[in-house]
Amino acid sequence: MLQSNTFSRKTKGGRIRKEVREVYLRDDIYCGATACKICDASGARLTSSPIIILDTNVVLHQIDLLENPAIDNVVLLSVVLNEVKNKNMAVYNRILALSKNSLRKFYVFSNQFHKDTFVKRMDGESPNDFNDRAIRVASHWYQTHLGGATSILLITNDRENKRKAIEEGISAETIQSYVKSLGQPELLDLLVNPASESEGVAMEVVEDLRPSKIQVVYPEHKPMSEITSGLHRGIYHQGKLRVNRYNSFEAYVGSESIGDEIIIYGRKNMNRAFDGDIVAVELLPQDQWHEEKNLSIADEDDEEEEDIRLAPSSADDAPRTTNLEVGSATNMNSTPSHPSGRVVGIIKRNWHSYCGSLEPKSKPAGTGGFTFVLFVSKDRRIPKIRIQTRQLENLLDKRIIVAVDSWDRRSSYPSGHYVRVIGEIGDRDTESEVVLIENDIDSRPFSAQVLSCLPPLPWSVSSEDLANPIRLDLRHVRVFSVDPPGCKDIDDALHCTALPDGNYEVGVHIADVTNFVYPGTPLDDEASQRGTSVYLVERRIDMLPKPLTEDICSLRADVERLAFSVIWKMTPEAEIISSKFTKSIIKSCAALSYVEAQARMDDSRLMDPLTTDLRNMNALAKIMRQRRIDRGALTLASAEVKFQIDTETHDPLDIGMYQIREANQMVEEFMLAANVSVAKQIRDYFPSCSLLRRHPTPTREMLEPLLRTAAAIGLSLDVSSSKALADSLDHAVGDDPYFNKLIRILATRCMTQAVYFCSGDLSPPEYHHYGLAAPLYTHFTSPIRRYADVIVHRLLSASLEIDKLPTIFQDRAQLTSIADNLNYRHRNAQMAGRASVELHTLIYFRNRPTDAEARIVKIRSNGFIVFVPKYGIEGPVYLTSKGEKGGGEWFVDEEKQKIVKMDNTISYSILQPVRIHMEVVEPQPNRPKLQLTLII
Known about the structure:
The protein is about 30% helix and about 25% strand. It is built from 25 helices and 39 strands. The chain starts with a strand and ends with a strand. About 40% of the residues are buried. One of its GO terms (biological process) is rRNA catabolic process.
């Protein structure tokens, strides 16, 4: 039976367009209840009474509660899922995961396709009223359909919807009353209380939680209509708020409209914005602008509520010095380099769940068994969050997860709710899980559906593979791999064969992952969502299941494996004569570590064929590298740290900077060459749907900190092009052995992130990779670890007419969405890796107070940031202590990049070596940190 629904939709031009959708109604959509005598019960999941039907707002706001196993036997109506999908994609994915979890009883009922529950929208009916009516109709049908075999309960917090449901004979309750009826008080902690219900009690509690009794009022956020108008007129500026990791009272908003970063100083000017929020900012009058070097490094025990009084709201209000501003630094250069502003509205919230612990000194308050306490996030950029709990005694020594619900303008703190316990504070496994949760890393075991996509073990190359005409048999070729020590997920191998004509055949062989990961399968979907493998200090979170990463796809020594190969014929001068792309079968003769490969090349006594291949390949790589540098490629540096881990306890035994050898650079050079060759191939064949990688050129403003530092030490850097900058960095040498490396680290920090993109979304000049000085670049060489490479393998295979191009490549919007997710996952993996390094650094130095030499890399009004080359550690050093007066005052000489004591007895300059003492301290409960103290 056909039915139609009419919807009104607003177009981008602001016009209202009516759309008519025809729906085929069926009578064979089953209710999902095992007690039903009418429907086919083979796929039924609802086994007990009552059966719960949720309205949209309950799903949107109470997802943390719904994920608790105590909530089960739930019907998810399609009309609810559609509305949730339109309003919050993250919640939609979470509720959908519950419906697919075989251990949970969540059943999706397609009410708008069932002939007895279909609801036609009435003229003048609002979308909200239409959805509520559809939910009530479906609830009533369930009640009638099951005929008393089991009870039906509609859960809604909408008073009008509840009233109408009861009038229509449907049992209905609020989520709060339903949870109370379960007799599990701890579930009440998971509830998100609507602002209308919690506001009164929230305001009451604020006074008990704040040490200061001064009333704090944040400015109201502007309505979106006014923000949109202000952005068009240039009154407001839009950008992402980034909170300083060393000072949570200081944030930056990168604004394209003014081409500069806007400093947001003080909680009042941040106006309830969180790190990562997209905000609208209004510039302050220029006489209120803060010079960046006059901003201080915040102390760990600074009280954030004090800071709310820092920023004046008008030119007549002079900023006062608080314990945040340790010392009263002045600036010899009075012209501020960055504009300052205040947040006037939130365009898009970045709220998510946060890991941390409860503040032990919080004063208990509340009624009905609840205690109101402050939650302190491990992420120092996040303000304290007020929650209510019945489990205070059980939670004080635990790392817990808390979600933010709201932030009232009359409250010092945002309000949130408890989600779950992670584990004991200080336990390494607990703290490692915190790292994963904070960076949204999925570390769950792969599902049965994903694992069912794998070929059975043991796996080996079959006779069909050997007979396949698309595969080139290279088992006779001397192929080898060079990787970090202990590497098991080997996705690249090499060969370099001297030819009779004096040239070389050079091959890059990459694991043929797409031979096992088919588009649209659960395995492919999982890899697409995870996006990348994540490397922590003590373990690896795989993008693909271990049977693939460590066995079937891994190019291990002495076993036959399937590969996708790029093979060049090269002259001894590393000029490419010809290129070939082919699926292949290889048998690696050796899986070497970087140290082993380097030792072979350095040992003049070794003249065996494998060592000769290594030396020939290294000679070609050196030529290729120099040619790339001559073209303008940058050689940058990062503070990469390497740990030696105890195999039994997993505790760090030693820590130091990661050493780069010629063997590393050799492998890198040929991986870059393969990526460039593949990028050109897929772009030529698929100009509008290729997945490429670009590195935007940094703006002059982004490079300003590097230029200021260089000028202060008498160094002239030319940043007019990547070639000019590369040459300048090569000439930046001094007596200090760390000098050039430090300059390169500072240059790296001025760069933008390289990102994936769909070729059809940008023009060819925008494809450029600044750091590599390459007009085209992609990722092809690590499909075991990166989903981007899986996509590129499919594109390359289609360009060679080996496989058909999957249909997803015809949907540019979906490709763009995939690229966005890959960029998000890639950045999160980087952040998780750094957080893991910080965690293990704390563990290592916990009982090892150490003195070391450091270099100053950033000047601030009350101290400076230093880099410790031996350990690859960076952190703040304070020159003043709280409450220090008179002789403790310092001023910043912006031009010379110095901080000078007022009596001119002491000064410290950028890149100056200093001695520091490193020791783990805990200035706030449950927030240990590595404290760096100046040794004079």
